[in-house]
Amino acid sequence: MAPKNSEASTNSKMVMNKGAWTGEEDRKLAEYIEVHGPKRWKTVAMKAGLNRCGKSCRLRWLNYLRPNIKRGNISDEEEDLILRLHKLLGNRWSLIAGRLPGRTDNEIKNYWNSHLSKKINKKEKNLQSVQLHRTASPKTCEAVAAGQETVEESSKGAAIRSLASM
DNA sequence: AACATTTGCAACCGCGTGCTG
DNA sequence: ACAGCACGCGGTTGCAAATGT
């Protein structure tokens, strides 16, 4: 895959750092934000003396350097909340993260993709095999599933609207 | 021990939206 | 009304560590 960078490409001579952040870069970013605050990321990147694009700085701050960030060890309560919110909101990771203090959307998205989606797939497969044994025709199953989907979609919309407006 | 495969997470990318001049 | 910019989001990728053969 050819590397692209929309912000970096605005200055053809400038080659931005990419990949993992070093301790030194973290320190520079944190020090700058402590003084000037987390805004104008392009300026932050330049003024902090970081050869990074603004986007990269923003992401690093939000997902790693920001104070009060919880890392790892997602508790059973948090997992349960994620599952319920995902059922309600779908892949609205930032909204879900907003309900979990100290957690980032990226962390929740990663957790979902690597842990929960598998769990759910397993559950669904189990459920399907049970249903196939119990119910009459596959068409009945489809009809039932479609009906549930419609109801879920409408409540999803209401939930997103109410959370987004907060 | 050596290699292959899988997993988990940090970071990147493209796109949509809102703000500003 | 419009263009350009900055920001935020969700999807995807890259890679090191862990695990399996």
From TrEMBL:
Chain ranges of the HTH myb-type domain: 13-65, 66-120
Gene Ontology annotations for the cellular component aspect, listed alphabetically: nucleus
Subcellular locations according to the entry: Nucleus
Keywords per UniProt: DNA-binding, Nucleus, Repeat
Top-level taxonomic group: Eukaryota
Residue span(s) of domain Myb-like: 13-65, 66-116
One of the Pfam families matching this protein, by short name: Myb_DNA-binding
Sample GO molecular function, one term: transcription cis-regulatory region binding
InterPro entries according to UniProt: Homeodomain-like_sf, Myb_dom, Myb_TF_plants, SANT/Myb
GO BP, sorted A to Z: cell differentiation; regulation of DNA-templated transcription
CDD domains: SANT
The name this protein goes by in its record: Uncharacterized protein
Organism field: Hevea brasiliensis
